């Protein structure tokens, strides 16, 4: 975000113009920044062959996915729906991997229909898969019993999480697969999300590599993702160069021990898109009490859940009056819940009704976690490149929220009575 002549710009597009053309609340994504983030991770790793996937649960907008696919990125999906989105975005099935949790037989069938590789999450799922698809290939998700992440809810490795096959159960997995002539062609791990220090990640590699060596038919090893971005002041970004150098050396050594060169796979989500997203909201009320200043907006945690769910920090910019005197205020939403905060006790250029605020680093786990709670439709989304904005998802309407009910219960429009 840039300021020039007292005007706020996102990738060359004026915020006041964006809000005027598309209304608020509004999600705005910077296309070139998404591309730059992908290239920075790709260029940090010298090992080849290298395949980078985008964990699209972070933001499954088709145009976001298309931007990354055009850079050579594949897609990591968590459900048949996300596989469908990936195919619609133009991703080839061989560049899509399903890494789901508690996948049903019907869902496995839907994914197999597309010809997509499945990361098997449990021994029982492996049994179901092998009985249904003998003579095929799959991948297995290994839990190295080491986890990390920015919040306990996003730690996905370790003894207390639901994900993956424990690293000491792989011999049993091999027996199940051998009984149905299924080849385990991939080994996968994912220890957590929003990781800024790569040391816990590297520590998990020892367990993962020892486990993967037991699998004789590997073609690739997927080391997951979870690389984070700085959200709050004082946080430092991950050292990509140091990580890339260490990963290249460690994985090359593993392949030498394994006896052949494997494809190296990573599947970042947040790292590519978080900082490229902005949620523009309009101030509709300023309420001053004896102890607080509440800045009320036309959005809420139905559009950005992370502060309420994780206590997450997101920067707030007053795009309308950046030079105003700062006051301490809390930015709140329009949802009937006490926990409906975007920011607590921040020093902000004093907001007034009508001002446009930008909630920063809102490109990941924001719209994708949105809901119509309180009957609040979801915002529109626009992509900005070269100073031009294009609509990439229309704003929901009340009619959209009723579509599934109207045909069943024959709801009449109030004005039709």
Kindly summarize this structure in a few lines.
This protein has 12 helices and 21 strands. The protein is an alpha/beta fold.
Give the C-alpha Rg. Answer: 23 Å
Roughly what percent helix? Answer: 25-40%
Strand content: 25-35%
Oligomer: single chain
Structural domain count: 2
Q: The biggest beta sheet, please?
A: 9 strands, mixed
β-strand number: 21
Describe the structure.
The structure is a single chain. By secondary structure, this protein is an alpha/beta fold. The chain folds into two domains: 2-28 and 275-405, Lyase, Ornithine Decarboxylase, Chain A, domain 1 (Beta Barrel), CATH 2.40.37; 31-273, Alanine racemase (TIM Barrel, Alpha-Beta Barrel), CATH 3.20.20. It is 29% helix and 26% strand. The chain is built from twelve helices and 21 strands. It has helices spanning 15-22, 31-44, 62-70, 80-88, 105-114, 123-132, 170-178, 199-212, 240-258, 270-273, 306-310, 398-409, and strands at 2-4, 7-10, 13-14, 26-30, 50-55, 74-77, 96-99, 117-120, 137-143, 165-166, 183-188, 220-222, 263-268, 277-288, 293-297, 316-318, 326-332, 341-349, 356-359, 380-385, 388-393. Strands 4, 14, 15, 16, 17, 18, 19, 20 and 21 form a nine-stranded mixed sheet that branches. Strand 14 (277-288) and strand 15 (293-297) form a beta hairpin. It is globular and about 70 Å long. The N and C termini lie far apart (49 Å). Mean pLDDT is 91; it is low at 147-158.
């Amino acid at each position: 975000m840039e300021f020039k002549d007292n005007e706020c710009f996102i990738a060359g597009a004026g915020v006041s113009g964006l809000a005027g053309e598309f209304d608020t609340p509004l999600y705005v994504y910077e296309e070139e920044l998404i591309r730059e983030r992908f290239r920075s991770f790709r260029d940090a790793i010298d090992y080849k062959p290298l395949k980078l996937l985008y964990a699209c649960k972070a933001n499954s907008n088709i145009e976001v996915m298309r931007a990354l696919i055009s850079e050579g990125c594949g897609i990591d999906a968590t459900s048949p729906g996300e596989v469908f989105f990936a195919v619609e975005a133009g991703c080839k099935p061989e560049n899509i991997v399903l890494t789901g949790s508690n996948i049903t037989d019907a869902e496995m069938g839907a994914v197999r229909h597309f010809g997509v590789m499945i990361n098997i999450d449990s021994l029982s799922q492996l049994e179901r898969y092998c009985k249904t698809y003998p003579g095929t290939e799959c991948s297995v998700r290994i839990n190295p019993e080491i986890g990390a992440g920015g919040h306990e809810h996003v730690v996905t490795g370790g003894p207390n999480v639901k994900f993956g096959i424990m690293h000491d159960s792989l011999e049993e997995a091999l027996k199940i697969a051998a009984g149905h002539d299924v080849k385990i062609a991939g080994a996968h791990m994912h220890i957590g999300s929003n990781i800024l220090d790569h040391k816990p990640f590297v520590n998990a590699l020892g367990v993962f590599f020892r486990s993967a060596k037991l699998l004789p038919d590997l073609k690739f090893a997927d080391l997951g993702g979870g690389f984070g971005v700085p959200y709050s002041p004082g946080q430092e970004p991950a050292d990509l160069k140091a990580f890339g150098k260490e990963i290249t050396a460690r994985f090359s050594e593993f392949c030498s021990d394994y006896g052949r060169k494997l494809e190296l796979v990573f599947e970042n989500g947040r790292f590519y898109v978080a900082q490229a997203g902005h949620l523009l909201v309009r101030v509709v009320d300023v309420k001053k009490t004896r102890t607080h200043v509440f800045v009320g907006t036309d959005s809420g945690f139905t559009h950005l859940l992370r502060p309420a769910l994780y206590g997450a920090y997101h920067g707030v910019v007053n795009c309308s009056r950046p030079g105003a005197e700062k006051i301490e205020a809390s930015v709140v939403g329009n949802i009937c819940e006490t926990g409906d905060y975007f920011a607590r006790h921040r020093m902000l250029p004093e907001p007034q009704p009508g001002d446009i605020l930008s909630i920063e680093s809102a490109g990941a786990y924001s719209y994708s976690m949105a809901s119509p709670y309180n009957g609040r439709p979801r915002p529109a989304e626009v992509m900005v490149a070269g100073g031009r904005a294009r609509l990439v998802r229309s704003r929901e309407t009340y009619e959209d929220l009723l579509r599934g009910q109207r045909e069943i219960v024959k709801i009449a429009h109030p004005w039709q009575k």
